[in-house]
Amino acid sequence: MPRRSSYRTGALNRRPESDRYGLSLSVRNGGKTLASTGKISMLQPETARFGPLDTMSGLARGQKFRKTALKVIASSIRKGNIIEQDGRLYVVLTAENIHPGKGTPVSQIEMRRIGDGVKISERYKTTDQVEKATVEDHNYNYLYEDADGFHFMNAETYDQVQVSKEIVGSAAPYLQENMTVKLSLHDMNPVAIQLPQRATLEVVETEPVTKGQTASSSYKPAILSNGVRTAVPPHIGTGTRIVVMTEDGSYVERAKD
Fold first, then answer.
1. Which pTM was predicted?
2. What DSSP designation does 54 have?
3. Enclosing domain of residue 208
């Protein structure tokens, strides 16, 4: 078993240990490791010191662990980036730079906290510095889901990794066996997932096709084979395979296959 590590994120902020240390679980080559996402300065490579309450890790008091990170201006943040705030990791859901006619330009960033899925919204001046976590993106094939989460395999190394349901989030219904996805890894732990932009699914329930309706008519509600509700053109009937956007389930076209 790889040894465990954790960071102290603040003696005065007493939270449950799993929350306070920001732990995430991953599986690599059949072994489990616990990784921490504690606060680290991103101006240059820094040394993070473990706090005195590192009983979960079994490490000596004050033992050090090196990790590099980066500070960037808020206007450069994009969807899918991983940023640190108050010692916690967040995945960026949307990032918009707003330039009002008068006043200071700002960056509006919607984020989801990694670990518990809590969503927050922050507004920064476009020139404010934001801590951007260093991550590595790798392609993985989806294997299966169980009570512990979702399991993926690196097709090149055959390493397997487990991703929590909180991280997969709304992407879960679109996962299909052997689908290639992009996982963002932070300290070898998955922190974000990116699916292919489109997926092919079957319409299992919708209103019947009425003679004379055309593709230009108003869309009608439909339920897809993955349980997602969407809207389809009136000429699309039950049993038809369609292409949808994995980001929001919106209809794109009738499948060619």
1. 0.61
2. -
3. 198-254
